[in-house]
């Protein structure tokens, strides 16, 4: 299975730190899967201008190709001004309307306070649903107080990240089996 982890901001380090923990959870417990971490801070991503995602070159083309080739995604986002960053929204705009069809997508969010814990529920889930993702209903929300430098210092958060990785795989594998059974039932 091809799993893509997307750290959806060009600013700050907490989301990237958390996504490193997600990557470690997949690699430790499921080394048989391909896991790629893409951090928007590492790339020069163009603004969406309505072109087909395959018409972009450079970092933008590489990013969209990796996302479209994924079987499962974990999207990590910080919460800025009670919203997802514009850089992450731009990624969604680069992709086709049904760009997450047949993909399992889970979420992780980091924020300065607990007041923003519903942002993934009210902003990310509707976008992912519109783009036809199979969305893992639970997500990980991490507050600033759970970090010290570039480490997560709360064992419960680490446990929830491990569970997110496991649940993402379970949903992706289950959905894949259902799809295969449905296709086999056509008999051609």
Automatic annotation (TrEMBL):
Gene3D superfamilies, per database record: 3.40.50.360
Residue ranges occupied by any NADPH-dependent FMN reductase-like domain in the UniProt entry: 1-144
Keywords, in A-Z order: Flavoprotein, FMN, Oxidoreductase
InterPro entries per record: Flavoprotein-like_sf, FMN_Rdtase-like_dom, NAD(P)H-dep_FMN_reductase
MF annotations from Gene Ontology: oxidoreductase activity
Source taxon at top rank: Bacteria
Subunit-structure text: Homotetramer.
Protein name as catalogued: FMN-dependent NADPH-azoreductase
Source species: Salinicoccus halodurans
